[in-house]
Amino acid sequence: MNRQAQSAVLFLLGASLLHAGTTDLYLRYVKAGLQPLLLAAGAVLIATALATAWYEWRATSRGDTTTTPSAAPAHPEPRVSWLLVLPLLALILVAPPALGSYSATRTGTSLQEPLAYPALPVSGDLRLSVVDYAGRAVYDDGRTLTGRRIRLTGFLALDRDGTPYLVRMALNCCAADAQPVKVGLTGRIPPVLQPDTWLEITGTYTPHRVKDPVNDGPIPFIEVTGARPVPPPKDPYDETWNT
To answer: Which of these, 44, 24, 51, lies nearest to 35 by C-alpha position?
Structure first.
């Protein structure tokens, strides 16, 4: 791979990072807070590619052969280096789906005890994240949830025995470390359940909980009074652990 090819690959990779960072695509890979770093990395790669191309053009126009491949002994260029283009093509052509029910049912719930419980509105429906509800239900015994109508949004997953869970994948850094937090559903559950369907659940706190069959982690439940399908959110991952 000569320098012209190197600069072309660098430019395309940088442009791909800028494209991902200026659209919602980057949220499939990393948390929202890393967007500035992703954009900076793309800009650096493009600048490097342009500098490499300019340096090569200047050396060629001056007839300086010391920096060109012709000055070196003739060796066939390793074709394996072109495999570096494959990740670039994958980034350009393939938008990976967010992790869903397949990963959730094969990974134990990763609920962590919150460091603190933010104050909740004193009236009206409580619109909570799955992670927030699960943490309050398990580690605070639902003291701030009892008697309130609660709304949760997540995707549906079915355990091997058919138990329905509302799930959000929580992450610390990127999709590679995303882990599920599960809330079991009981009460007025929809008669037809399709895994990976995004639902907004309306319900009330119930002290019922079980152990995750994968890792024995605690899974709280919510008493469902209503459910409706909703479009997947722009950011499918939960970043509560980062706040």
So the answer is: 24
